Amino acid sequence: MLSLTRKFYVARSGFQQRETNSTPFVISKTNSNEIVGNQRAEARPHMSNIKSKIESLLFVSGEEISLKAIKKALGEAGDDEIWEAVNALAEDYKDRGVRVIQKDDKMQMVSAPENAPVIETLVKSHLAGELSQASLEALACVAYREPISKIEIDELRGVNSIFSLRSLSIRGLIEEAEAPEGGDRKTKYYKTTLDFLKKLGIEKVSDLPRYDEFSRIPQK
User: Fold this and answer.
1) 122 in the same domain as 210
2) 122 located within any domain
């Protein structure tokens, strides 16, 4: 059990924030044809940048994400630009192992349906064995910070945790939880289950090693 705490500590301390710097575009001549040409040249990298950001959002989310949520995250693009970028992504991925699907105002990155058998084989083998390090890290995040969202877990670990969370859910170690006070009601949160406590032989999560140090709410 102490290894869970250590893994959680490493995951928490390893998270680093990155800052993105942008360079302003400067038009050096006043000729109208050159200005139009420069504006078009500027539009291409701008759209490529939006597509790249949306690709990251879809990957990190692991679930369907709405147009409104993407607009809020980008803070710089209109509906038409976003849909153009999403359609371009869908075209890029159409013959690959990952696809971008759309319905109404929602979109999601998913595995290619023709690869379902090999994915099922991997999932079965994963569930039959011991918990992987990735799953242990995700489980430690949930145990010490519940209720916690997938995005928060991803930030702590620095990687997408969707596969680990699904594995833990199927094993009955975690389950969906209500959003905490002030939390987003549309976001999915996770907490540990009674089976988790039984498997560890403890009565409550606050019995975990160094719980006061790592938990969101100090034990009273």
Assistant:
1) yes
2) yes
Residue 54 and residue 74 share a domain: yes
Same-domain pairing of 127 and 197: yes
- pLDDT tens digit at each of 220 positions of the chain: 444 444 444 444 443 343 334 344 333 444 545 444 444 445 555 677 899 999 999 988 878 899 999 999 998 788 999 999 999 999 999 999 999 999 889 999 998 999 989 988 877 776 667 888 999 999 999 999 999 999 899 999 988 898 899 889 988 999 999 988 887 878 889 999 999 998 888 889 999 999 988 886 544 4
Domain termination site, one of 77, 111, 145 = 111
Q: Are 89 and 99 in contact (CB under 8 A)?
A: no
Verdict on whether the full-model pTM lies above 0.90: no
Burial 148-168 (b: 16+ CB within 10 A, else e): bbbebbbbbbeebbbbbbbbb
